[in-house]
Specification:
By secondary structure, this protein is an alpha+beta fold. The chain folds into two domains: 152 residues, DNA primase, PRIM domain (Alpha-Beta Complex); 101 residues, Alpha-Beta Plaits. It is 25% helix and 17% strand. The chain is built from six helices and 13 strands. The strands form four sheets. Strands 11-12-8-10-9-13 form a six-stranded mixed beta sheet, covered by helices on one side. Strands 4-3-7 form a three-stranded antiparallel beta sheet, with helices on one face. Strands 1-2 form a two-stranded antiparallel sheet. α2 crosses α3. The N and C termini lie far apart (39 Å). The protein binds adenosine-5'-triphosphate and manganese (II) ion (MN) (2 copies). This is DNA ligase (ATP). It comes from Rhizobium viscosum.
């Protein structure tokens, strides 16, 4: 683990063959984060991030003129002039359909930066095993007036329920307004079962504490409740990747945390492109150390 962390230090950053054109192009004006700044951020996090973005179908949020520009495309398919380091792949369930996108290495990630991809949203599966997801993402979406402590409490509540099913739970900030609780799975169960499990978690949370939790998106806004968004877990659905930047003011990122770090000291957009290198330097190990080693098969059970 120590060796793994040393590899993230400046001495040993990955290099890319992909040429950045206009490296000074501004992506986040208020923070002054440029194309080159974003590429440098990804070089710092690459070794921790790679398992969550490599060899997965991707949906990409592209903002060619940065977050203040007018163009904003949520893309699942190739675009004109797309760099060769971004793969086009055929969905085995849609062989005649438009191809999907994947990256396989750091060059692919830099190619995304070059194309003004400011958010990366993978499927919860790898292309080695399309029909068998390897993670469940529970997305905690607080209504406008929900105190942050309650969002933290909801994450712990989910953790307990997930662990009660014999599975592991990891937490990350969304980089937006909430938290994501992520469970690694051995890729054994299919999409229906995995989404069913996620829905069961959300339903049981809201049934046991309907004052705090909602399992349906309708009326989630301004309800004062937390929507337990389980809908990231169907085939073709996505959630923002661990370590992905967010195309919102602040240049926040979705940051994996150790559970002990989940306090009121930090908020959902606390970690950013700017402050992450200092965070990595201060860490003694990967905050999601052992994520894939903790994967267990989803048990079939009556729900
Ligand atoms: P927050 O904490 O603000 O809820 P989030 O990442 O959980 O942040 P959103 O960015 O609102 O939530 O996105 C919700 C989900 O919908 C994401 O996981 C994403 O993969 C997907 N998504 C985002 N934008 C689009 C879009 N334009 N079309 C389809 N799906 C989208
Ligand atoms: Mn959310
Ligand atoms: Mn959501």
């Amino acid at each position: 683990v120590v060796r793994e962390m040393e590899q993230t230090t400046a001495k040993n950053l990955p290099k890319s063959a992909v040429q950045l054109t206009h490296p000074d192009r501004i992506y986040w004006p208020d923070e002054g984060v440029t194309k080159e700044g974003l590429a440098n951020y990804y070089a710092q996090v690459w070794r921790l991030m790679a398992p969550y973005v490599v060899n997965r179908p991707l949906a990409l949020l592209r903002l060619p003129d940065g977050i203040s520009g007018h163009q904003r495309f949520f893309q699942k398919h190739a675009w004109k002039g797309m760099n060769d380091h971004i793969d086009e792949i055929t969905d085995p369930k849609d062989k005649g359909g438009e191809k999907l996108l994947r990256i396989t290495d750091f060059d692919g990630l830099v190619a995304l930066v070059q194309s003004a991809v400011l958010e990366i949203h993978p499927w919860g599966t790898t292309t080695n095993n399309w029909e068998k997801p390897d993670m469940v993402t529970m997305d905690l979406d607080p209504g406008e007036d929900v105190p942050w402590e309650n969002v933290i409490a909801a994450a712990y509540e989910l953790k307990e329920r997930i662990e009660g099913e014999g599975l592991a739970a990891f937490v990350k900030t969304s980089g937006g307004k909430g938290l994501h609780v992520v469970t690694p799975l051995e890729p054994k169960a299919g999409w229906e079962d995995v989404k069913g499990f996620a829905k069961w978690l959300a339903d049981s949370m809201s049934q046991d504490d309907p004052e705090r939790y909602l399992a349906t998106a309708t009326k989630a806004k301004r309800s004062g409740k937390i929507f337990i968004d389980y809908l990231r877990n169907g085939r073709g659905n996505t959630a923002v990747a661990a370590y992905s930047a967010r195309a919102r003011p602040g240049a926040a990122v979705s940051m994996p945390l150790e559970w002990s770090e989940l306090t009121t000291e930090i908020g959902p957009a606390y970690f950013t492109v700017d402050n992450t290198p200092a965070r990595l330097d201060a860490l003694s190990k990967d905050p999601w150390d052992g994520f894939f080693a903790a994967a267990k098969p989803l048990q079939k059970r009556k729900r």
